[in-house]
Structure formats: C-alpha cells, structure tokens
Specification:
7 helices; alpha/beta; two-stranded antiparallel sheet
C-alpha cells in the first residue's frame, strides 16, 4: 500500500536540508514543485514520488503557521487505498522566543495537534493529526518518553560541519569580527556572531555566494558530516514513518 507523506517545515533552509538528508540517508531524490508552501506563495515545495511512496516537503513560513495548516494536512487522507501521514519538523528555539525551548515548543505542538484533531473531526469527520520532530535534536527512549535540546536548525548545522574546514574558516572569521568591533561604538557586530550568519559565511566561502542562499543549499558536500551522531534520531524518526 502506497504511503502519502507531507512534511511541514518552517522555511526554505529546513526544506533544502531535508532534501539533502533524504538523498544521503534514503537515496530519495526530490524535485522542486510549486511556490505554494505558504499562504503568500513565497516558499518552494519539494516532492518525491514513486509507486510506493510520495513525500511533499511544505515550508509554512514560521512555526506558528501550523495553526493554519488544517486543510493542507487533511489532503493527505484524500487518496483511497493509501496511507496518509503528516510530519512536522520545526525548531525548538530558545527561551528568548515565543514558545521557545524544547519543553515549551513540545507543549505548543501538543496543544496545536489536539486542537487540529478536534476541529477536523467536527468539520469533516476525519481526525487530522501529525507527528513532530524538533531541531536540533529530539529523541525517544524505549518507553516512548521524549527528550531534546533547545536550539534550531543552525544549532544542528554548527555540530555537523567538517571540523577541519571549519577550524580554518572560523579562525579567519573571528579575526574579521574582532576588526569590526573597532569600527563601531555600538554592538551591531554581534549580529555577525549569530549562528545563522556564521553558517551563511561558511557556505559562501566553500560553495560561493549563490549557493549560500537557503533555497540553493546542498549539504551533500565535503563541508558537512551527514553521518554525525546528532543526526541519528532524525534518521530513526523519518525511517519509522517512511517504511
């Protein structure tokens, strides 16, 4: 029986990472679909399809957009004779953000899932639901107890860089940031020390400016370690629902 899977992510950075990850770990090649991954059509979806499996990666435009995905999630159940599965992969974030931290984001998603299920049952007679995974790390013990870490996709990426290349890169970059500090009497230089900025520069140095853009990133290069132990729980999560 064919499986029809939708994976809802926050944005293009998450989508392109998963595209690379699926190719590396499952040998599944995704094609770009349509610019309909969010309410304003800004994001690009990615699709894999064969006789036994269909996967659509849908960027939503932020974690809170999960509350607007009821109709989109319902579509996965519309195919007779197929198994429909919705997955949500988001950042846990940190306590400085709304619903941030692993514990608070889990609570947020649990509440969103319960609300979605009830509303879809009342409206359509179908209990729409989803399973979720939070970047940078989510795991379950043998009893099904969930645990994880605060952070986001960039936190994960910082842990899976090619350490030899990264050490050369970061030593040069730190000298650059130290120089920037001498040019201003504000703390704007701190923006250059954020993980998102570091990851962008890392991509740009080794892959070029064009491929540093989130929509064009490829992680199946010598710059990244997609076999890193921090990715084992993600592999297990996806394997559980794909096979």
């Amino acid at each position: 029986m064919k499986k029809n899977i939708q994976i809802f992510v926050e944005g293009d950075a998450d989508a392109t990472f998963l595209v690379s990850f699926f190719l590396k770990k499952f040998n599944l090649f995704f094609e770009k679909a349509t610019k309909q991954g969010s309410q304003d059509g800004k994001y690009i979806q990615h699709r894999y399809n064969d006789d036994n499996l269909s996967i659509l990666i849908v960027p939503m435009g932020g974690y809170s957009k999960i509350n607007l995905m009821s109709e989109s999630m319902k579509k996965v159940y519309d195919y007779d004779g197929e198994i429909g599965i919705n997955l949500v992969i988001q950042d846990a974030d940190d306590p400085s953000k709304d619903h941030g931290s692993f514990i608070d984001r889990v609570k947020y998603l649990e509440e969103a899932r319960a609300k979605l299920f009830k509303e879809s049952m009342d409206k359509h007679g179908i209990g729409v639901t989803f399973h979720y995974y939070l970047f940078p790390y989510t795991d379950w013990d043998s009893s099904g107890q969930i645990s994880g870490r605060d952070g986001d996709l960039e936190t994960l990426l910082m842990s899976i860089v090619n350490q030899q290349l990264y050490k050369k890169f970061i030593s040069c970059r730190e000298a650059y940031v130290e120089c920037l500090k001498t040019l201003c009497d504000t703390e704007h230089w701190k923006e250059h020390n954020q993980n998102k900025s570091i990851i962008y520069d890392y991509f740009q140095i080794y892959n070029g400016k064009d491929f540093a853009k989130e929509i064009k990133r490829d992680y199946n290069t010598h710059c990244w370690d997609l076999d890193h132990p921090d990715l084992t729980p993600l592999t297990n999560f996806l394997k559980k629902h794909i096979y």
